[in-house]
Amino acid sequence: MPLVTLLTDFGAADYFVGALKGAILSVNSHAQIVDITHEIVAHDVQAGAFTLLAAYDSFPPGTIHVAVVDPGVGSTRRPLLIATDSYFFVGPDNGLFSYVCERERDVRVYQLTNEKYFRAHVSATFHGRDIFAPIAGALSKGVVPEAFGELVDDYVRLAPLAPVRDGGDDGATAWSATIIHVDRFGNLVTNITRRELAGAEFARGAKLEIGGREISSFRRFYADAAGDGVTDAAGGGADAACELFAIWGSAGFLEIAANRASAAQLLCAERGQPVRLTSLES
């Protein structure tokens, strides 16, 4: 029996999550339901997209991911089912699945139009319960994606995740990157991956620049002992207590972190802030 996961901005105080689960179980009482999180900041589609990207492939093939961060509920935005080689995704057409679609192969996107599989009475304000949950329940019973609607290719996409190469000098390569997520510990997740950088390059002079600060120290884990490698943009020394460094995070992106402190607070940084990466040519 495939798993059904839930990712929403519903929180835990209201009836929304319980109703969502009830709607799935009403279609398939044997469904196995797992909560990823219901604490996405309200209406924050980009945060939902990142969290889904970071979590979805921890689950076994065949898992059905229901994601509902849906400020456009009841409007003209479309309900979607996305099928890939290994997973299904059900939710609104507002960019929530953009990052997953960038990573997955053989992406097929269906607009949900077959009302046979919807709840009998569809509320204009709760498509999670009345459309997405019943569709997930039907999928978990083996109904094929083609039964729910027609293929579309004009689904909403967020800006691509990949950083942009923008030149460099003196044998270096430069990339314009950005902060795509700030976690609860204050770690700054960039959109830099191992395609752009290997951790060993920091030993050869790679550096990050953010908010007038340069970070050239790389660590394998948060408590790893290393030099601080932090200067201001003019080349002056930074407070060693800041302990800012780069580290590969568990989602596969380069993070800016501080040992037992918030890099976001130390740098007064937030999502969307630009980061410049300079690394040596291979």
Radius of gyration: 21 Å
Tally of strands: 17
CATH architecture of the largest domain: 3-Layer(aba) Sandwich
Overall geometric form: elongated
Spans with pLDDT under 50 lasting ≥5 residues?
Answer: 227-241
Q: Hey, roughly how much beta strand do the residues contain? A: 25-35%
Mean pLDDT over all positions: 90
Order of helices and strands: EHEHEEEHEHEEEEEEEEEEHE
- The CATH class designation of the largest domain is Alpha Beta
Residue share in helix: 10-25%
The biggest sheet, with number of strands, parallel, antiparallel or mixed sense and barrel status, is: 10 strands, mixed
Structure in a nutshell:
The chain has 282 residues and is of the alpha+beta class.
Characterize the structure shown:
There is one protein chain. This protein is an alpha+beta fold and 282 residues long. It has two domains: 3-152, Rossmann fold (3-Layer(aba) Sandwich), CATH 3.40.50; 164-280, Elongation Factor Tu (Ef-tu), domain 3 (Beta Barrel), CATH 2.40.30.90. It is 17% helix and 29% strand. The protein is built from five helices and 17 strands. It has helices spanning 16-27, 45-55, 98-103, 127-140, 263-267; strands spanning 3-8, 32-37, 64-68, 79-83, 88-92, 108-112, 149-152, 164-165, 172-182, 188-190, 207-210, 213-215, 218-219, 230-232, 244-248, 254-258, 274-280. Strands 8, 9, 10, 11, 12, 13, 14, 15, 16 and 17 form a ten-stranded mixed beta sheet that branches. A hairpin with a 4-residue loop joins strand 4 and strand 5 (88-92). Helix 1 (16-27) packs parallel to helix 4. Mean pLDDT is 90; it is low at 227-241.
